[in-house]
Design a protein that fits this description.
Number of domains: 2
Strand content: 15-25%
CATH class of the largest domain: Alpha Beta
Strand order of the largest sheet: 16-17-18-15-14-19-20
Structural class: alpha/beta
Distance between the termini: 67 Å
Largest sheet: 7 strands, mixed
Radius of gyration: 23 Å
Shape: globular
Number of strands: 22
Bound molecules: NADP nicotinamide-adenine-dinucleotide phosphate, magnesium ion
Length: 490
C-alpha cells in the first residue's frame, strides 16, 4: 500500500485505496479504485476506493451500531470531542491546506476554515434544548425534546471539500446523529484526512463513515437507502433533483444546497474602488467554482462603460498557475469541467455577447497539461442569454446594463436561482430597499458574499435549494422535535 505525503513534515493523512467504515480503513468491496488527479498537471495524486451500494450498506450498518451510544453520550462530551478534532486539524493545518490545494487546484486562499467551523459547531452541541409547554391541567407537564434522526447521509461536491465536510459532519454528529458521507470523486482526499483526525480525536468508530466512489454508484446508494433518516446534498440542481426523487421514495427529509447565478448590482453612486476588485476576486476565487460566486454584474447604464473597463483592467492582472505558485487563480477541477466552461465561452459569443477579455485557455507550456482557463468578461449580455441564466462554475463574468432600480431588481431576480446577491451603492435608502427586494438567501451590501459575518445561516431561495447550514441553528437542523406530555401517577 502506498501513501501520499501532503506535508513538508512527511506525515501521511491519506492512505491509498482505503475508506472509513465503522472505524476501519477498508478497500471497496470490489477492490477497484479511482485515481485522484492534480488538475494543474494531470498527475495522479492518489487512488481512492470505488465504493458501491454494498459499501454504503456496510457503512449504514456501522453507523446504526454506533448510534445508540453516541446519541446517549453527554452533549458536552460530544462538544469536547469536536473541539479536540478541531485542535488536531489546527496541528495539521499546513498539510490539510496543501492537500486541499492540490486536489482542488487552488492557490492558498487564507487559513483553512475547518477548525473554526468545528469550534463554532462544538459550542452548539450542549445548547440544544426544547420548550416547556402550557398544559390544560396542573398535573401534566408538557415539553419538547430535540432528538437526533439516527443515521444521516451526505453527498458533498469537490469545490471546497474541507469546509463542506466540516459543516455537515460537525453539525450532524454534534446533534447525536451518526453519518455516512460520499465525497466527490474529484476531491475526496481532504474529507478522508479530516475523517482520520476525527477518529484520532476520539470520536468513536462508526460515528463518521466515509465511502468514496462515483456519484451514480456510491452517491446514489445513500439517498436510496431506506434506513438513512435524513439526507444532505450540495451540488448541481440536476443531481439535487435525483437525490430528492430518491428521498421521496423513502420519505426521507432532506437539505439541498444547489448553487447559483448570483447578481452583483452596481448603482451609479457605488464606490467603484471597492466594488471592482471585490467583484473580480469573487469570480476568480477558486477559479469561479463557488456556489456563491457573483457571476452577473447588473450595472446602472450611466457607469456601465467605466465598470466594464475597470473590471477588464483588474482581470488582466490575475496571475494563473499551479497551486504552489504565487498566483491568484488555479485550473478548473477536471477535463469535464474544462470542456463545460469552454462550451459556455463559445456559447456566449454565439448568443451575441461582446467578449471583452479572456475567452480561452492561457498560452504557455506550463498550462499544457492542466485544466486552465482565462478569467473572462462578457459585456452587453441580455437577461435571456443562457450565459446569464445558467451556472457556468468558472471564472466567467457577464455584464448586463440596466436603466434603474426597478429594472435592476427584475434582472437580478430573473433567474431560477436565489443563493447570494450583492448590492453596491452609497445610498442607504437604496441599500435597505434592495436588501428586501432581492430574492436570495444571502444579501451583501457593499460587501462580497456575506464577508465579516459570524454564524450567518447559509442556503438558497428558489432552485438554489432549501435548508440552512452554518448558522446558530446548524445543529438544531439535525434534530427532530418530540412533544412529551407527562402525567404523574397518584
Ligand atoms: P454534481 O454531479 O452535482 O456532483 C456533486 C456530488 O454529487 C458529487 O459528490 C457527485 O459524485 C455526486 N453525485 C453525482 N451524481 C449523483 C447521483 N445521481 N446521486 C448521488 N450523488 C451524485 O456536480 P458535478 O458534476 O461535479 O458538477 C456539475 C455542475 O454542478 C457544476 O458545473 C456546477 O454548476 C454545479 N456544482 C455546484 C456546486 C455547489 O457548491 N453548489 C458544487 C459542485 C458542482 P461524483 O462527482 O463523484 O460523481
Ligand atoms: Mg461529478
Amino acid at each position: 500500500m502506498t501513501t501520499i505525503s501532503a506535508a513538508p513534515s512527511g506525515t501521511s493523512l491519506v492512505v491509498d485505496g482505503v475508506q472509513l467504515i465503522g472505524g476501519a480503513w477498508v478497500p471497496a468491496s470490489t477492490g477497484e479504485t479511482i485515481d485522484v488527479i492534480d488538475p494543474a498537471s494531470g498527475e495522479v495524486l492518489a487512488a481512492v476506493p470505488r465504493g458501491t451500494a454494498y459499501d454504503v450498506e456496510q457503512a449504514v450498518r456501522a453507523a446504526e451500531e454506533a448510534f445508540p451510544a453516541w446519541r446517549d453520550t453527554k452533549s458536552t462530551t460530544r462538544g469536547e470531542l469536536i473541539h479536540r478534532w478541531a485542535a488536531l486539524i489546527d496541528e495539521h493545518t499546513t498539510e490539510i491546506d496543501e492537500l486541499e490545494s492540490r486536489e482542488v487546484g487552488r492557490p492558498h486562499w487564507g487559513p483553512p476554515p475547518m477548525a473554526r467551523i468545528l469550534r463554532f459547531i462544538a459550542g452548539q452541541a450542549d445548547k440544544v434544548s426544547g420548550l416547556s409547554l402550557p398544559t390544560h391541567t396542573p398535573d401534566v407537564l408538557g415539553l419538547t425534546l430535540r432528538e437526533p434522526y439516527g443515521v444521516v447521509g451526505s453527498v458533498i461536491p469537490w469545490n471546497a471539500p474541507g469546509a463542506m465536510f466540516s459543516n455537515d459532519v460537525g453539525a450532524a454528529i454534534a446533534a447525536g446523529n451518526t453519518i455516512v458521507v460520499k465525497p466527490a470523486e474529484d476531491a475526496p482526499l481532504t474529507p478522508l484526512a479530516l475523517a482520520r483526525l476525527a477518529l484520532e480525536a476520539g470520536i468513536p468508530p462508526g460515528v463518521v463513515n466515509v465511502v468514496t466512489g462515483y456519484g451514480l454508484e456510491a452517491g446514489a446508494a445513500i439517498p436510496a437507502h431506506p434506513r438513512i433518516r435524513r439526507m444532505s446534498f450540495t451540488g448541481s440542481p440536476e443531481t439535487g433533483e435525483s437525490i430528492m426523487a430518491a428521498c421521496a421514495k423513502n420519505l426521507t427529509p432532506l437539505h439541498l444546497e444547489l448553487g447559483g447565478k448570483s447578481p452583483q448590482v452596481v448603482f451609479a453612486d457605488a464606490d467603484l474602488d471597492a466594488a471592482v476588485p471585490a467583484m473580480v476576486a469573487g469570480i476568480t476565487l477558486n477559479t469561479g467554482q463557488i456556489c456563491a460566486a457573483g457571476s452577473r454584474v447588473v450595472v446602472e447604464r450611466s457607469v456601465h462603460r467605466e465598470v466594464v473597463s475597470r473590471i477588464a483592467e483588474h482581470m488582466a492582472k490575475i496571475r494563473i498557475g499551479a497551486w504552489h505558485e504565487k498566483v491568484q487563480m488555479g485550473p478548473l477541477i477536471s477535463a469535464k469541467q474544462h470542456a463545460r466552461v469552454m462550451g459556455y465561452l463559445s456559447l456566449g459569443r454565439e448568443e451575441g455577447a461582446e467578449l471583452v477579455t479572456g475567452g480561452g485557455t492561457p498560452s504557455g507550456a506550463e498550462f499544457d497539461r492542466g485544466f486552465f482557463v482565462e478569467p473572462t468578461l462578457f459585456d452587453e449580455v441580455t437577461p435571456q442569454m443562457r450565459i446569464a441564466r445558467e451556472e457556468i462554475f468558472g471564472p466567467v463574468l457577464s455584464v448586463i446594463p440596466v436603466d434603474d432600480e426597478d429594472e435592476a431588481v427584475e434582472v437580478a431576480n430573473g433567474t431560477d436561482y436565489g443563493l447570494v446577491a450583492s448590492v453596491w451603492t452609497s445610498d442607504v435608502g437604496k441599500a435597505v430597499r434592495m436588501s428586501r427586494r432581492l430574492l436570495a438567501g444571502q444579501v451583501g451590501v457593499n460587501n462580497a458574499i456575506g464577508a465579516g459575518v459570524i454564524g450567518g445561516p447559509f442556503g438558497g431561495y428558489k432552485r438554489s435549494g432549501f435548508g440552512r447550514t452554518m448558522g446558530a441553528d446548524a445543529v438544531l437542523e439535525y434534530t427532530q422535535v418530540k412533544t412529551v406530555s407527562l402525567r404523574g401517577t397518584q
